Amino acid sequence: MSRYHPVQVVLHWLSAVLVIAAWVIGAIVFERLPSGESAPRVLLLGAHMATGLAIAFIVALRLALRLSLEQPAPATSGNPWLDRLAGVVHAALYAAALGMGASGLALAVQAGLPAIVFGNAQTPLPEDLGQFSARGVHAVIGTLLISLVALHAAAALYHHFVRKDGLLARMGFGGRST
To answer: What's the pTM value of the predicted model, to 2 decimals?
Structure first.
């Protein structure tokens, strides 16, 4: 088999788009908007949380499919150390994405965000989410996740432009061959 299952391809690219969207929304909420209560902050925080939940669900589904469907043979870079690193990066991507979901959920619970953002709670947003321990964990894992995504993308581009080995086609929207 030379390609991933079409469902895996769709979920891969959907999760990629959602991770970037969550990162951008999170950067706006935590770095661009002033702390405290505001309608745009609550709206964007809700979008960030919903996107994060969707990512966690999709990643869990991707893991289940990875275990239940036949996979293409591992790619090779021509260097055994880089090949091992690729496996570590893939595992770390899954772990970091799930860790983001868990730390985001922990932060939401610590700060009482679900009732504020999705409910009718009259409680204002906390002035500074940095006061909650899960916020620091969420930020560290977020930096790790974005770094891993960048490394993953760089490796894919290396395979495409330097090795010219057709690796990107395995995660493309074409037919599968066995």
So the answer is: 0.90
